[in-house]
What does this fold into?
Amino acid sequence: MRTLLFIVPLCTTLVMCKGRSTALVVEPAEVAPPPAKADVVQVATVQEITPAQLAALLEKPAVFIYDCNEADMYTEAHVPHAELTVYDAITADKLPADHNATLVFYCYSPECPAGATAARTALTMGYHMVYCMTAGITGWQDAGMKTEP
It folds into this structure.
């Protein structure tokens, strides 16, 4: 039985030819060379922003803040100058024409994925400066930042 267990795996790597065994030679698949530096595409990623960092940007031009919470939560409290948006309904007409503008998305808390989802959508639309305040409105408030309305 031991011999049989040894022969079966051995048969998978050897080819029997007229009573002689010859090792099976497998040619490596052709591998494409690495891309030239000019061919490398840099993929943008959503950047994290803290409540304090966002507070410092509030009065700067070309900064657009999007609250991805429900309307009743937005009415109760939101980051100053934030616009209510539906996280899975981001379209070009809801974002600035300038693809170099700074966009910041947030939702309720770190457990809520809505802000990050909206931010990734903006990246796919060609925006370059895309941030997500993962702390959400709860983190904003916990940091002692003022809210609107």
